[in-house]
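Lab meeting, item 3. Inverse folding demo.
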């Protein structure tokens, strides 16, 4: 099973985005997505931001993860 992590982009520099996922920040590769800006929401898989998502998508993913835990 593959699991993606919905996260908010905090900053971007040299093809790397720092994301905030539930209060934890970590760097991920942003090379797949060329139009990322701080404040955008992304789906992250295996350390790579693979898709831009909306804030409502992120909220739905967070609610689902909370209900599973």
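The presenter then showed the designed sequence:
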């Amino acid at each position: 099973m593959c699991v993606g992590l919905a996260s908010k982009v905090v900053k971007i520099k040299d093809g790397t985005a720092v994301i905030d996922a539930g209060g934890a920040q970590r760097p991920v590769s942003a090379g797949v997505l060329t139009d990322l800006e701080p404040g955008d929401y992304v789906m992250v898989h295996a350390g790579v931001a693979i898709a831009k998502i909306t804030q409502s998508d992120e909220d739905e993913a967070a609610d689902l993860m909370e209900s599973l835990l």
